[in-house]
Amino acid sequence: MWCEDEAGPYQTVPYAGASWQPQGTPQHVPHEYFQEGTAKLLTLFHPASGQLRVQGVTSTRNAILHPWLKAELSAILDELPPPGVDLSPEANRAVWHRWREGLTHKATLCAELPPLRMLLVMDNLTGHKSPEFLVWLFQHGILPLFTPLGGCWLNMAESVQRIIKRRALDGQYPQDVATIIAWLEATAAGWNAHPTPFVWGGKRKVRRQRARERRLQRLAGSGACVRQSLPWTQPRQHYGDTHVN
C-alpha cells in the first residue's frame, strides 16, 4: 500500500519556529516581504517501510501530477516481485472487488484486469478520477482508494508531509521558490536515509480505546466485563430470622 498527496502551497514568507540563535538574541525577520510565488510537494509514501518519494513543483495540475505519478508508480512496480499465484480471470476479478467492498462510489473496472499489485490511497479530488488516469492504474494492477470528504486524516502521506515541512521550513525565511523546493527535497532525502515506518495509532486510537472501555462494565475487579450495566438491587437487611429487602 502506498499513499499519495500534494502538499502546499508554501510561500516565500518567514516561517515561525525554533532557530539556532544564542539565548537572549532572538532571530529577527522582516515584517514586509515579497511574494515570489508558491511551491508544492508531490508525495508518495510507503507506510510499511517509511520510504518517501517526492518532487517539488510550482503547480499540481494533471499535466504535471499524472506523468510524475505514472513514472514513480512504474518504478515501484518494477521493484516488486511478480505475482506468485496464477488466478483465473474470475478469481482475479473477485480479488479486486473484495478491496472495493463498502465503497459508496466505485469506478468501472476494465473488462480485462491484471493481477492486483498495489493499493494507492489518494484524496477525493476530481483530478484523481480522470478516466484516462484510472484506466492506466487498472491496467497496471493498481487500485486507487479515495479518502472520504472530511477524512483526509486517513491518508498517512499528509502526516509525513507535515513532518517534512516542519523540518525544512520552520524558523526559516526562504526568499524564492527554488530555495523552498531544494530544502523540501533535501529534507525528504534525509528522511529516506533513516526512514520511520508508520502504523495506525496515536491520539485517535487512544480515544477509541477509551470509548470502548466506557461501554464495558468491569465486574468486581476481575477481567470479566459486561456490555450493559447490571440491574441495581437494594441490599438485604437481616433482622433475626426475617429477611427484609
Number of helices: 6
Going by CATH, the architecture would be: 2-Layer Sandwich
CATH homologous superfamily, by name? Ribonuclease H-like superfamily/Ribonuclease H
Describe the global form.
Answer: globular
Secondary structure category: alpha/beta
**End-to-end CA span:** 63 Å
Provide the domain count. 1
- What is the overall pLDDT average? 84
- Compute the number of strand runs: 9
Query: Which class in CATH terms?
Result: Alpha Beta
Strand content: 15-25%
CATH level-3 fold name: Nucleotidyltransferase, domain 5
Q: How many strands, what sense, and barrel or not for the largest sheet? A: 5 strands, mixed
The succession of helices and strands, N to C, reads: EEEHHEHEHHHEEEE
Residue share in helix: 25-40%
Compute the gyration radius: what is it? 27 Å
Strand order of the largest sheet: 3-2-1-4-5
What is the structure about, briefly put?
With 245 residues, this protein is α/β, with parallel strands linked by helices.
Would you kindly provide a written description of the structure presented here, covering whatever features stand out?
There is one protein chain. The protein has 245 residues and is of the alpha/beta class. The protein is built from six helices and nine strands; from the N terminus they run βββααβαβαααββββ. The chain has helices at residues 62-79, 89-98, 131-139, 156-169, 177-193, 202-215, and strands at residues 2-11, 38-46, 51-57, 118-122, 142-146, 217-218, 225-226, 237-239, 242-244. The chain has a five-stranded mixed β-sheet with strand order 3-2-1-4-5, with helices on both faces. It has a two-stranded antiparallel sheet with strand order 6-7. α3 (131-139) links the parallel β4 and β5. The protein is globular and about 65 Å long. The relative contact order is 0.17.
